[in-house]
Model the fold of this input.
Amino acid sequence: MSPTAPAATITPTLRRRRGLTEQAAVAAVDQACRRLRLPTVRAVLDEALTVAGKEQLSYQGFLAELLLAECDDRDRRSSIRRVKAANFPRDKWLGDFDFDANPNINPATIHTLATGDWIRKGAPLCLIGDSGTGKSHLLIGLGTAAAEQGYRVKYTLATRLVNELVEAADEKVLAKTIARYGRVDLLCIDELGYMELDRRGAELLFQVLTEREEKNSIAIASNESFSGWTKTFSDPRLCAAIVDRLTFNGTIIETGTDSYRLAHTIAQQTGR
Done:
């Protein structure tokens, strides 16, 4: 196709519409934005016209500002949708994490993880420590950062995931369920180790881990050190295999034993 073909096509259209009144032009732009699904262009048009007049933008500059505004807003809305789809139980942001309250956690390590490079590589992450030490905050915060960067993220509790897998197996849709969990870029599993899993549940969880191994990332938070995982996974060999899947080429962060929540509550009571 000739490079001049688009201009040859649009020129007669432009000539036909030279006679549009200002009011008709405004209505036409509004209708076109609705039809082309450009809500941001429609919303900022008046302001953009004012700015273009003050700054004497060229036609190309004016059009670029409008289209870039639409792109930026679409990116923002997509980010919001991905965070919502991750199904986090509450909002947690890395910027709100109090590193001074837990010196066991290296801020540089968290900031490196926040870049998402480990997710691109399909590496795992383990957050190990007692209740109240910031594991879930970091898990949700890193998951949120990943979703905002464009990764597909899913959050779930360990017991909820196992129950879903058991139900899927009973209903003969296990392969479909495992495949669904295998597709997301980052699977965040919280509260692993809080409850003992029977052999069937542990084996089903192992299938999910195997489906994702070295392809897509898993991040877990657990209140048990690896040596205590035999209380969660009663079969020693299965336990060792699960630990292997969750640690190979991964990052392990030990958040310690001192509860920030407990210390914060005591400090508030003492202050009053």
Notes: The chain is about 60% helix and 10% strand.
